[in-house]
Design brief:
Blueprint: E1 16-19, E2 22-25, H1 32-39, H2 66-102, E3 124-130, E4 147-156, E5 161-166, E6 172-175, E7 179-182, H3 185-203, E8 211-216, H4 217-226, E9 230-234, E10 238-239, H5 250-255, E11 260-261, E12 264-268, H6 270-278, H7 290-308, H8 317-320, E13 328-330, H9 334-346, E14 349-354, E15 357-362, E16 365-370, H10 373-381, E17 399-402
Parallel strand pairs: 3-8, 5-14
Antiparallel strand pairs: 1-2, 3-4, 4-5, 6-7, 8-13, 9-12, 10-11, 14-17, 15-16
Amino acid sequence: MGTVNLRMAASGEKPYRVYRGGRAKGKVPLARHDREARRAVRSDGSGPGKIVERRPRRRLWLGWTRRRWILVAILGLILFFAVWGLAGYLSVSSGVSDANARLPKNVRPALTPDNGLLFSTPTTILLLGTDHATGRGSAGRGADQHSDSITLLHTDPGRHRLYYLSIPRDLRAYVPGYGYQKINTAMQYGGTRLAIRAVDKLVGAGMPINHVVIVDFNQFEKLIDAIGGITVNVPENIVSNRFDCPYSTQQRCLQWKGWRFHKGPTHLSGHEALIFSRIRENSLDPSWTDFDRQHDQQLVEQATLNKLSSPSLFFSLPFDGNSLLKPIATDLSTWKLLQLSWVKFRSGKSIHCRLGGTSETIGGGAYIIGSSENIRVIDEVLGRSAPQPPPKGEPYAPGCIVGANSNY
């Protein structure tokens, strides 16, 4: 028999770990509580390692931790915005109901129903601006029912675009039942229903009118003041003709030259915006035409819509939601208005177009006779072709310009 001599480990030699397949160098694994005991320190501070203690959570007011207070604050904000949004929705809904009631009952049958949600389906809205009410700056216009501003707003949610198509009020067009007239007389002859039919006939079946919004410019003054005024990018320096003199004495009014507006972004009050939208002459620009006046009206309309759809107005909706819609008559419901606001918010590009032609005098009246280029412009609004600007030097020529700084 062989004798096994036990070999002691040399001083400082590390012990071995023995496995079934042989031995391997390394420290002998210790039990978990032994490892923790090595790192821990007794309460008297003796022993190796660092002191490891679990600090208790700091308790704040009512004994709640900071994490709980943060969670409660977040939930509170969510609840606040939900309640405030509901109150605003109910207030706006009340105003929309009144705006729907102001629309004549015979108008809805003249409109073409939507094919789907405004979120995803193109829609066309006819914007009619009227300035026939009596009041400051509108003397002698009480019986005037013409549509001073005629604009089609066409949405293209798929490409995140908005198209504004301006229709000159003096454009000669077929008015059902009255033959060829200035298109703005359709409102005078048959109200909103006939105006819709005349515009529908003009632009063709490719762009049916789904909704209508009528804006009373005389009451627009109160709306603009209620939202804190608007900012309009005035296209050029303007010195208007004399109308609606701001002075109380006749002598001062005779010395007064007219209203002045400077080129560039300008903040306007309600009355200033109303004056700006009514300017018919510019002594600094002899080429000023009625197109420029319509363009100014559209700038006021669009600046007001931008302000109404801004997040800053959200906090005043529960108090002003009803009154903000007083100058408006429309068939749009609250839900559709919310969809339209979202489509406008999502749109990354605005394209401003206009119909036009040549100026002619017929029977003593000034008309704009439409050209074949108007068909091309309608195709551009429908996204069938790229926008083309009107030729320079032709004040009544049709065309489209990308962006908000167009001159129409």
